[in-house]
């Protein structure tokens, strides 16, 4: 089963809000398997004011954050509804590599594949693309915790 999710559904799943929501749309989702998400990168992003004035480049850590938020959506959609009353916390990043710069006007597409889901943790492989060119990749780990 593949599905697309609009921003309203994403906001219902994630606790993030402007200016820290890093995905605009879910393009493809197969619970337990993979997700493809989209972030429209615009010059209006607040981080471009300081990174870098006159030569705006999206910080790599925010590309990783976009992948982590995508992982959160995939994980929530994979968990049974009765198990979704948790926060999902990024707990590790391995083998992160940045291949190209992301600049205003780009459409950042994240592709994540679930490798392993346990009762309190998940491991995923993530890649980010602009115009089908790989810009970043990483292995992400997250753990689940109850709302405080």
What do these coordinates show?
With 148 residues, this protein is α+β, with helices and mostly antiparallel strands. It is 18% helix and 41% strand. The protein contains two helices and six strands. It has helices at 7-13, 60-78, and strands at residues 25-30, 34-40, 86-98, 107-117, 121-130, 133-146. The chain has a six-stranded antiparallel sheet with strand order 1-2-4-5-6-3, covered by helices on one side. Strand 4 and strand 5 (121-130) form a beta hairpin. The longest helix is centred in the middle third of the chain and has 19 residues, at 60-78. The mean pLDDT is 94.
Radius of gyration (Å): 15 Å
Query: DSSP helix count?
Result: 2
The chain-level mean pLDDT equals 94
- Derived from helix and strand composition plus strand pairing, the structural class reads alpha+beta
The CATH topology is given as Thiol Ester Dehydrase, Chain A
**Percentage of residues in DSSP E strands:** 35-45%
The main sheet orders its strands as 1-2-4-5-6-3
Under CATH at level 1, the class stands as: Alpha Beta
Distance between the termini: 33 Å
Number of domains: 1
Query: What's the CATH architecture name?
Result: Roll
Draw up the topology in text.
Elements: H1 7-13, E1 25-30, E2 34-40, H2 60-78, E3 86-98, E4 107-117, E5 121-130, E6 133-146
Antiparallel strand pairs: 1-2, 2-4, 3-6, 4-5, 5-6
List keywords for this structure.
148 residues, six-stranded antiparallel beta sheet, globular, 2 helices, Thiol Ester Dehydrase, Chain A, alpha+beta
């Amino acid at each position: 089963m593949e599905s697309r999710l609009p921003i309203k559904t994403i906001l219902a799943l994630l606790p993030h809000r402007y200016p820290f929501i890093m995905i605009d749309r879910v393009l493809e989702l197969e619970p337990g398997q993979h997700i493809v998400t989209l972030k429209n990168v615009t010059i209006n992003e607040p981080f471009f004011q300081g990174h870098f004035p006159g030569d705006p480049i999206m910080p790599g850590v925010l590309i990783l954050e976009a992948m982590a938020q995508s992982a959160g959506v995939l994980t929530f959609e994979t968990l049974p509804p009765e198990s979704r009353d948790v926060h999902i916390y990024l707990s590790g990043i391995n083998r992160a590599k940045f291949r190209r710069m992301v600049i205003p006007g780009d459409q950042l597409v994240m592709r994540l594949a679930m490798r392993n889901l346990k009762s309190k943790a998940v491991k995923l492989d993530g890649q980010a693309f602009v115009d089908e060119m790989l810009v970043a990749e990483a292995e992400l780990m997250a753990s689940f915790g109850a709302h405080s």
